[in-house]
Design goal:
With about 325 residues, the protein is an alpha/beta fold. The strands form three sheets. It has a six-stranded mixed β-sheet with strand order 6-7-8-3-9-10, with helices on both faces. The protein folds into two domains: about 230 residues, Rossmann fold; about 60 residues, Alpha-Beta Plaits, CATH 3.30.70. Helices cover about 35% and strands about 25% of the residues. It is globular. Keywords: ATP-binding, Nucleotide-binding, Transport. One of its GO terms (molecular function) is ATP binding. Belongs to the ABC transporter superfamily.
């Protein structure tokens, strides 16, 4: 996979601070990858994403975005990224289209014209395509002050994609949205990612949003704590998966598990069994003892994150 984000020994230390906010982190992100950066408040997430998007200078290290150095070639970096920050930056007294038109002219994507009808055909085609994808086509020429939180987020996504960025940076993109709006927004983001072959770089406090990431990087105290797929991180922080099984003849079930060399512990007249397979089906298919109870626990990324935070507090 082609590398589109390259970070090597990145450090950022603020003036008069005792320790570095970002302390020598290194990672790479591939083109088209969905990459999530997670960590508690003060871990260095916002500082990292600010450096990657050229809004903050680094102290040491090397960062390249789409092959361009973030400091030496900042303007080229900005041409290749789209950014959606926590707090909306829309003019509520303008229409959705006017917000977009102003944005693309400021960034030099298209020359500014006072009316939509005067804008280039390429602009009109792009805005029409994206408005259909994100679902605000019918509201494109309405004032933003009447938009819901979800509609404003969709508008920000549309605006950030007008120049066909290779990377979309999302900093808490669904903060303040209800569950339905978050689900709808992610459906649009995944659709856009597929159609545009775009890299998504996410920071979020909604851990379930990172479950679908190709890889997750968890940071604490400015350093990388774990980096890998969601399943790899869960296994590293939480150990093997487990399930609770029970049977009328618990002794027979124990003997069978022993013969299969499967680890288990007795819990309230049942057995807690650990397994390493992606699903418990392989183990269950080998059991001959009739089961009277089966409870399968699938660890979540949120549980792994909380375990990391607790480890960090104990240190």
């Amino acid at each position: 996979m082609e590398t589109i984000i390259q970070v090597e020994n990145l450090k950022k230390k603020y003036k008069n601070s005792e320790r570095a906010a970002v302390d020598g982190i290194s990672f790479e992100v591939g083109k088209g990858e969905f990459f999530a950066l997670l960590g508690p408040n003060g871990a260095g997430k916002t500082t990292t994403i600010s450096i990657l998007t050229t809004t903050l200078s680094k102290t040491e290290g090397m960062v390249k975005i789409a092959g361009y150095d973030v400091e030496k070639e900042a303007s080229m970096v900005r041409q290749n990224v789209g950014i959606i920050f926590q707090n909306p930056s829309l003019d509520l007294d303008l229409t959705a289209e006017e917000n977009i038109r102003l944005h693309v002219s400021v960034y030099g994507v298209y020359p500014y014209r006072p009316f939509y009808s005067m804008m280039p055909a390429a602009y009109k085609q792009r805005i029409e395509e994206l408005a259909e994808i994100v679902g605000i086509h019918e509201n494109l020429f309405k004032k933003v002050k009447g938009f819901s939180g979800g509609m404003k987020r969709k508008l920000e996504i549309l605006r950030s994609l007008m120049h066909k960025p290779q990377i979309l940076f999302l900093d808490e993109p669904t903060q303040g949205l209800d569950a339905s709006a978050r689900q709808s927004l992610w459906a649009y983001l995944q659709k856009i990612r597929k159609e545009e072959n775009m890299t998504i770089f996410l920071t979020t406090h909604y851990l379930e949003e990172a479950e679908e990431a190709d890889r997750v990087c968890m940071v604490t105290k400015g350093k990388i704590a774990v980096l890998g797929t969601p399943d790899e991180i869960k296994r590293q922080l939480l150990g093997d998966r487990s399930m609770i099984i029970g049977a009328s003849d618990l002794t027979e079930l124990k003997e069978e598990l022993i013969s299969l060399q499967t680890d288990f512990t007795e819990v309230n007249d049942a057995l807690k069994v650990t397994y390493q397979e992606q699903t418990p089906q392989q183990l269950l298919s080998q059991l001959r003892t009739p089961l009277t109870r089966l409870e399968i626990h699938q660890p979540t990324l949120e549980e792994a994150y909380l375990e990391l935070v607790q480890q960090n507090e104990r240190e």
